[in-house]
């Protein structure tokens, strides 16, 4: 990649070098600040690791005149010629000075390995700020600090603590915030013969945020499968937006730790109480087509599945086994992942039975029984026939028992998969590997050829489940709908909770239907308004202190005549002195809650849930970021546990789901278009076959 | 164990030998029928495997005069002296003859390895029946057929296909129905240095059912931790009853495959439709304190956790790590298992900080940071201090990074745990192992010393979750309540659905409250009855064809006077000509569904759920086997997703949970005491703070 660039003349300035993350991953000339040739020193480890870099590596150190026989420069400023990337391993207090030198020198980027910054407390945070300020003064972009470094495995460029020359030739790029765990994930990945494209340790993320990394990798052809191991995601919205553009083309797999600590946000209102950042974040990932892995291992497993094989185009899996028990266990686990192990067609079963022993089953799982002597013949044959059958979307041979994990079977399966790939058959093959350690070299043989092997049915099913979800998501994630404009003439709203009338008008501006209502000051007025609306009506107490009207008897339903309304309104006015009464035509339908919030990390989001016990006791709600497309709103509603209540379960009326989806979209649009609206709560919306109407709403405007 | 029995004189009859499974696991003299010394033959593999048996092994074969230099007998009948156990490896068609010989000879038990029986179809099933009949004629108990054999690792007795001399000295006994997968689980267990007490391959289970195996193992002191890998459990009830007696003393871990195929039972009525065998079976396991593992690997992991370490006495876990990211991931996973990673007390944190490096965290996870040179000192010290602190119930050191998985750290942790065990500290230690393959010998070093090592946080958290659940369950599972007697004078009920009056009387006999009701033939009669009951009342159409009355408008509520009732009753009688009208005092409360069913595998069981959308749309129901103890009924209700709806969530009334538990117990008692009742449905029961009352019920009596 650098062949025509890798030997710039020393001292001769080069016109246009790489900038930003390109300077990090594809530098022409690298300086190692803190270089050393003394074993045991970090500077020596990096010097050794950088030795395979095809470009020039310049040792910078004030402690020695030479490093490994090469003349060393005391500072970056002393180096002749342009430097694209500085790798910094000096102690923290010296780092700001190094970055000042780098800025003065015009270095494009620095990878700061050194720890002792924000992760150690306020003093370290100040040092970090000083370092970043120095870097930015000269346009130096910074990776880290407190990280284990970066690799571009294809160059190769190993500017990391992980020893050895990277293998290259793989498509998996690992970006990790966790240092030690990220290194372990990487090292154990190599153990399983995983090939990486790039490795990026984000450390304290003092300069470059995750969304910028994702943007770079989206455009990087070598990075075909993107893994992010994250501890925090402060730029959640930008990451979401980048991911939406990425996932139709390449998988983005995120393992986000700290889930259990999430959700502690204080409850201000109904919708707010049900939110919690964790839920919004997970919803945003799903909406962007991101594969959310629970752990680092799961992240790597699905990356291995997707990088070397086509993603499954559907949920149908063929299982090939020599052990009924293992096949059934795997089928159970696949079902729990939402996948199917369908019975094969009669014709295909006939065809397979002709090749199988007498008591074998060709139904699926295809169980050849323990015919040890025929494993090397049957496994590859079955893999190929099933993949070419058109009846399944993925094939999982279970390699179990000594004769099934021997070299001949592994070679046979490897070659069968190679033929499938050569012929463009779009059906992936993953091996479920249940074998003693001694057989490991045969799993490696498969993995090296791009046939992923997952130990035990658990890992196989989990990886396949994620792969299949990605196979679907990459077609579902489409360009976002443009955000709608602010309604013409809408003035800046004043902070506080909007009056129901003003709130209703705002909703109306976004075509959100609200039930016909009149706000009244007196009981007589209420009764007169009711006559105008038509009976039966509902009367509700209006007072700023009544957040949940129904909790304190502030709602009277089924008022059928003038006298009813007058009496009820009079009591309601007594209930909250100084308040008013809202009279509404009484509507009916299935209660749905639709809300809008602004998440601190992910921005405007909508929430939908079924009313009553489902939302209140079970918290059965679903979130999505706004603005939403109509198809996204529809899928959001379908995700509810109680969705069947909207489609006519047990004699209920099937509601107009498109109308409900329109309300959900409109709430999102309102949040996007009117940024001073902090929170919005339609509770309930009554849904019927004829449409949806909000009968109670609350619009909260934030202070400026 | 057999030291004084292992050399009976040939030909001299022994007075009282072992019988049943004792003859299988502790035989004095074993015959191998089908013995051979020709490599590649099954008879040779078993001959070799049996060679370590300290008692006598007698070769039986018609194909050779000697086996391995020992004189062979043509048939069992030709052998002199008593035989406790025959191991049979001849082809299926010859097996019935062998068992006839065994019966004639007085052999106590046979392990039939041979396949070709019921697993192959109707012809094989006939052969299997013939074999079992022959065996039973002479009181021969049979393991298998179609199994990989048995082991008593302590003797050792290896009458199985798994080559090599068993290690012995472990407490894990593995009973497996799956042959090949069971063998793989066993072999991979040995790979991880797991020590077994006994191995039992059940094969086709033609004679000995799982409950009998469990009963034997319950009394076997060598078997401390019992694992069952099951594909079917036809004697579910007996297994449940044995398990209830076992789990307070030793863990029973079951992996039951075929879950995804379960639940296909046809829906006959409301309760029936919501049941499905899978749900009842899982409920029975939980009620008996059985640990249900999803997979064979999970089963072995929790067995490893429980066999060598005391079970956790509570949910509090200390995590020790050198990597923040791994600690957070593990904490997330532990939270998902219902466990806690509590912040340590200020005093303990102070004490720990005094020993830890500057930027370490002593909060929990205790993160020592990557101070490689101090790992061998800090890990053992922290393990011991935390286990002795009284602040946690389990300790998980995360061994990650090269210097944390080296021999010195492993030895240090091993010795720290040995000190804890020697001092009787009841806090288990499990290692979370994240290391390249090359470090494996150090994990083995720990495992061999009884400190289980689980690869990656996933497996660690899962095993610990199960272990903690067992730690609680072993105190919760108490002797069952004796089944109540049939009510004195109750005649045998006639098949069909009981009349509401008769049904109400039957419920009354078990103190199940029902709402005051009168059955009427005419509208006038209904109106008169209503006056007697007091208004408001409810009127319901009664007709055998109306199973769900409310589905077809057959229920009228809120009838407030004589005229109301007369009009409603008249319409209801028109709705279902030939029917009657049930008039009830109108009750209110939270709707609960309580049902009783007879599960084909598990017998009488009760179901409880919250009424309305929770049960109808979400299927939020819980099952338990009858009879139940009051505390079990209470926990059953607490397991409902929507339980909070019963305890006063969001302004609701908190109901009398003890009264509800009494109804649940009584429904179970009725099922047990009146065996002709096939199914019982109280839907709804109205629950209030003042008690519970059934307002609609349906009792179905089975034909004889």
Care to describe what's here?
The structure is a homodimer of 704-residue chains. With 704 residues, the first copy, chain A, is of the alpha/beta class. Chain A folds into 4 domains: 1-150, NAD(P)-binding Rossmann-like Domain (Rossmann fold); 309-474, Succinyl-CoA synthetase domains (Rossmann fold); 516-585, 2-Layer Sandwich (Dna Ligase, domain 1), CATH 3.30.1490.20; 590-701, ATP-grasp fold, B domain (D-amino Acid Aminotransferase, Chain A, domain 1, 2-Layer Sandwich), CATH 3.30.470. Chain A has 22 helices and 30 strands. In chain A, the strands form 6 sheets. In chain A, strands 9-8-11-10-12-13-14 form a 7-stranded mixed β-sheet, sandwiched between helices. In chain A, strands 20, 25, 26, 27, 28, 29 and 30 form a 7-stranded antiparallel β-sheet that branches. Chain A has a 5-stranded parallel β-sheet with strand order 2-1-5-6-7, sandwiched between helices. In chain A, helix 7 (236-246) packs parallel to helix 9 (277-287). In chain A, 56% of the residues are buried. Residues 1-15 and 262-276 of chain A have low confidence and may be disordered.
Quick synopsis:
Chain A is α/β, with parallel strands linked by helices and 704 residues long.
CATH C-level class of the largest domain in chain A is Alpha Beta
Oligomer: homodimer
Gap between N and C termini of chain A: 51 Å
For the record, what is the CATH homologous superfamily label of the largest domain in chain A?
Answer: Succinyl-CoA synthetase domains
Helix content of chain A: 25-40%
